[in-house]
């Protein structure tokens, strides 16, 4: 049976729950950050709160709540208001991988982007080695559009990214 998740705005007091997964090497291995120190996780949450308070807000970061517990975060970023484009991203505690929660989260983020913010196109990227994330993006109806070479500077060099996209009418 599919678990039900809630999305809510991230709060300052959430940093410890975020740190539970952001401090794990397995969670950050495909990312240009981490594993986080407590200070780095606090800085991330502070940055999210500052972005949420901006007048012309473009970054929407949601705590993912399952049975009252924060198990991850999802983000929608409005990249270009004139061209109505956005980008989604997500991260979950590994205890919740492989259960369909990330797919449900990605679908919710797409819905928010298309229906609450009137976006025309939403994209996402992932490490070509991250087959789990690739499957999530495909399951929520995103199309693999190509490969961005040397897209992210990682601790051990540059990383390519796969680009996925979805249009509002798809």
UniProtKB/TrEMBL annotation:
Pfam families, A to Z = Acetyltransf_3
In this chain the N-acetyltransferase domain maps to 5-165
Identify the InterPro entries for this entry: Acyl_CoA_acyltransferase (IPR016181), GNAT_dom (IPR000182), N-acetyltransferase (IPR051531)
GO MF term list: acyltransferase activity, transferring groups other than amino-acyl groups
Q: Which UniProt keywords apply?
A: Acyltransferase, Transferase
Q: Which residues form a coiled coil?
A: none
Residues passing through the membrane, by range? none
By what name is this protein known? Answer: Acetyltransferase
Q: What taxonomic classification does the UniProt entry list for its organism?
A: Bacteria, Bacillati, Bacillota, Bacilli, Bacillales
